[in-house]
Amino acid sequence: MDISEARLDSLVSRLSEGLSVEIKTWIDPKAAEGIAKITKAVIALYNRDGGYLIIGFNNDTLQPDREDAPDDVKAAFHVDVIQGIVSRYSSISIEIQVAFVERKGSLHPVIAVPQGVTVPAAAKRDLNDNGRMLIREDTVYFRTLGSNGTPSTSAIKASDWPDLLKICFDNREADIGRFLRRQLGVEWANLFTSALKSPTLEERTRSILQQGADARQMEIEARKLSPSAQMLLQKGSWEVALVFDPPKDVEDSSSDFLAKVDSSNPEYTGWPAWLVSTNFHNTADRPYKRETAWESLILGSVSESLDFYRMHARGEFYQSRLLRDDMTDRVEPGTALDPRLAAYFVAEVIAVGLRFVSALSFDVDAKLGFMFRWNRLRGRHIDHWVDQGSYSRNKVTREDSIESYVEVPADTPASSIAPYVQRATSKLFGSFAGYELKPDAIETEVNRLLKRS
């Protein structure tokens, strides 16, 4: 799991509980109750395919809890202490990491639980505290959503077993998918991982893309943008629509739907795809209901950004963002496109969409249609400015807007999405004088993304 300073800062600066993030007030790792809470949380997060346990925040206000903090936080939550608890009570060897992050003058431990579960972890012994059974042997703990969409840790229920088994099988299939791509190549491997495209789904996805773009323009016109925000409209942007087939037979999108979208988002990046801004400080950035769908226009207050989201419970999602290439001082705005960065964000969108399948109760036989569109491209050149700093001045595009479409089966493991990312970006890259990003490079970007979860 990613425990870089940037990742930890993003976790605590936009603090919220989800299926992969659990928040606890201060607990004592030496006390029976504290041991039980750590054990259950780590096992539950591991069974959910990894995540973070963040300690020292009030569960209701999400503000630092200053009353019960230990005198020496780093000693109390030393990795050897936490690992000892996990090793004693988990049936599976789970190698955790412990990092510390500062918030408002207080130091807080973050316990990172690894991904890769292929066999469910359970408690391997009881923990009895004066007649209270805090941990029960053979119990499988799991991060689950309650009836109101609130994530929590509990003993696994019958309704959660399909999710857990799918996660385990996906991790087993990941190795098979990588083997096929290495031995057979992407084209032949696609025969095993992709389904036939449905023109009807493609048409629906294109329609949602346009509806989202129209709704974005409507909100921009309705909201009074500052002069600096108006300038952002001149920068390059990219859009994506995601449509599930078959759709849900619903007319409205409830608050419960929005909560499930929020809590099930794996947050592969610090500013994740289909961000739910319910707790944002600026009320104008928070979601609002328009024509039975949730929308939000988010203007960054610290860094320049202008994002728009639209989500409907039928299984229709849209988002628009500015090109990162125009938001850096490392290249001149409007002149460059980093292909690895483009592939990285396409991979994030697809991976997040696949997480929505089980969280929103779509059938495993469903299909996901993705329609991408990149804008204000004309005259840009290929520039690997993020990592390598190299550029190809002769790889220039004359196209101003590029659209591409890809369908992904709902049962596709996140680790097997590289062929879909390549398909979704090949038309974009090809417009730059035939430029190609090799499959190995795309696989690298996919793996880099998934390791951040």
> Between the first and last Cα atoms, what is the distance in angstroms?
6 Å
Q: How does the major sheet shape up? A: 7 strands, antiparallel
Tell me the count of domains: 2
Pick out the low-confidence regions. Answer: 192-199
- Overall shape: globular
How do the helices and strands follow one another from N- to C-terminus? HEHEHHEEEEEEHHHHEHEEEEEHEEEEHH
Main structural class:
alpha+beta
Radius of gyration: 23 Å
Count of β-strands: 18
Q: What is the helical fraction, as a range of percent? A: 25-40%
Strand order of the largest sheet: 10-11-12-13-9-15-18
Q: Mean pLDDT across all residues, rounded?
A: 88
- Strand residue content: 15-25%
Count of runs of 4 or more consecutive helical residues: 12
What does this structure look like?
With 453 residues, the chain is an alpha+beta fold. It has two domains: 5-156, Methyltransferase, Cobalt-precorrin-4 Transmethylase, Domain 2 (2-Layer Sandwich); 193-450, no CATH class. It has twelve helices and 18 strands. It has helices at residues 5-13, 32-47, 73-76, 79-89, 161-184, 186-193, 199-222, 227-232, 255-264, 339-359, 418-430, 439-450, and strands at residues 21-24, 51-55, 97-103, 106-113, 127-129, 132-135, 141-145, 151-155, 237-245, 288-290, 293-299, 306-312, 316-322, 336-337, 367-375, 381-384, 390-396, 401-409. It has a seven-stranded antiparallel sheet with strand order 10-11-12-13-9-15-18, sandwiched between helices. Strands 1-2-4-3 form a four-stranded mixed sheet. A three-stranded mixed sheet has the order 14-16-17. Helix 2 (32-47) crosses helix 4 (79-89). The radius of gyration is 23 Å and the shape is globular. It starts with a helix and ends with a helix. Residues 192-199 have low confidence and may be disordered.
